[in-house]
Amino acid sequence: MYLLKLKITNFRKYGDPGLEVIFNQGLNVLIGENESGKSTIIDAVRYILNTQSYEYIRVQETDFHCNQAGNRAEELKIECEFTGFTDQEAGNFLEWLGFDENNNFVLRVWLSAIIKTDRIIVNTRAGMDDTGTVFESGARDLLRVTYLKPLRDAEIEMSSGRRSRFAQLLKSHPAFQKKPNESHTLEEIVEEADKKIQQYFGQQTGLTIGTKPIEPEGKIIIDEIEQALNSYTSEDIKNKPFVSLSGVELWAILQRLSLQIDKNLPSLGMMNLLYIAAEFLLLKRDGYTGLKLVLLEELEAHLHPHYQLNVLQYLIDNYNSIGQTILTTHSVILGSSIPLENMIVCKGNRVYPMGHDYTMLDQIDYLFLERFLDATKANLFFAKGIIIVEGDAENLLVPAIADVIGFPLNKYGISLVKVGSKAWKRYANIFQRTDGSGLGMRVAIIADGDVPCREHLTKYPPKVYTLEDNNVRYIGTDLVGFTQQMKKHSQSALITKDGKHPLTEDWIDDYLQFVSSSQEKPDRIGTDIRITYNDWTLEYSLAKSCLKSLLHESMIEVLKMPGISFDPPDLTDSPYEFMRPFLSNLSKALTAQVLAKKIMDKKPDLKGTIEQDPELTYIIDAIKWACNK
């Protein structure tokens, strides 16, 4: 069985109508910025199901939702729905079970709490109707979850003591379940050690360990204590003190054990890995017919990225033995490595599962994103807004321009994501939902218009197909498309690959019109995604903008660097001639890096000029859209 659905009403940040979360049977990763509700979801599950460690959980007044007017709700409700039962698992909950539309077992359990004057009344019930019946403690114990809290102190949890988590884990393991009227092997070992200790402190001679004789020096100490003690008491009272191990019962023994990995104190990360491995011990019990569910907050705590990924892969590979997992993360490393189908984005007061049933991504999109969604791109799951750019130059310049015009991206919680070429179309699908809603954040896409200027077409004419008939002109760049365009024309059968030729001057206007009309350039996708375009490329727009002189300075500075060689343009050159070095061997990224610094150095002088420059409008509009301005 597994947790299919969680419903929250008036619990902490979620008011009424509240929140519904649908979980996968295996791995579920709650991902999002701070205060997005990840911990609230985890705590809701803890409150209703309780934990394997039997921690004391009590509903507090602050758990009741408080609205913007400062009014606190007086009732809250947390509901879980379970499915996927085996017959053995279902047998534990027969009086509360129902069936879904596919005739599969379903269990509904809910916790309700009411504030009455100075106390909080909590009830846990189960059943398929709205009334249900009391959910008995024996059945509740079978739904307890394994919970690993954030900022885990693994050293304390695995150390000996009355509250030792390691002792609790061992006590619950079948290997430490005692048979009636029989001693556990560990008790026999400790009892034998206890006899040796008593002999060491009480026996005069004949004590050995193995074949080695031992001098019982402890006898001298006990004799001195006995002599002093008896001098304090009456003559007729003779006390005989002795030394023994305290508590030779199994539970007392387990409490004195600690789990270690090295005699020297290991790192926090290694202790956390040890702690996680120990917690998973109970989930692998043979024959266990209760719920197997792990709640793991901030997997990345104290862990190197390599270890984070290893634990994540372990959770995926060992689902059959460990069961269902719900974890939270702030890690972009994990965000880029988790299959999208297992991800649930928390944003505002909603959650957005990223599986096939919920997004506009197709199967090819999923495969593409799993290959190319790296740690830098995974920032998009933690942002308040997104700007997607095509190349390195935009990735370097957009933050500088945003800062100059008064919208520093870090202050507005904007993530800048570089995707390369036209791949932004796949990333845009992440933010589109099958129900027509968005992902709760604004997305701006800065794209190249890819319509070259006349000078470039004259100097580097592309090969095209052309045909003129009765003053009607036809032009195309690929044989299939051009033939399709000409299918009703009498000469279409004469068109072959050999008919492709360099574009001539008299066809440039037709070519520009063809390129402009054949490219799909939507300016909006849904309600939250906006795409802005330049005419051709970023560098061409810069060469026509108020930043031309700074760009020229940057190009000259790059030319002075070792191994860099190109013919520098003159400031009086046309925009096309000015940006031509970028079409050959001048690094766009390196030049943009130098230019970004120069822009920041002249920040006070550039704000008004940049904002009023029509060549930079497409960048400014994108920045303001992402910042919700």
UniProtKB/TrEMBL annotation:
Ranges of residues in domain ATPase AAA-type core: 267-333
Q: Residue limits of the Endonuclease GajA/Old nuclease/RecF-like AAA domain? A: 1-203
OLD protein-like TOPRIM domain segment(s): 381-450
Organism domain of life: Bacteria
Identify the InterPro entries for this entry: AAA_GajA/Old/RecF-like (IPR041685), ATPase_AAA_core (IPR003959), Bact_Antivir_Def_Nuclease (IPR051396), P-loop_NTPase (IPR027417), TOPRIM_OLD (IPR034139)
The record's PANTHER family line, in alphabetical order, gives:
ATP/GTP PHOSPHATASE (PTHR43581), ATP_GTP PHOSPHATASE (PTHR43581:SF4)
Q: What is this protein called?
A: Uncharacterized protein
Organism of provenance:
Cloacimonas acidaminovorans (strain Evry)
The top of its lineage is: Bacteria, Pseudomonadati, Candidatus Cloacimonadota, Candidatus Cloacimonadia, Candidatus Cloacimonadales
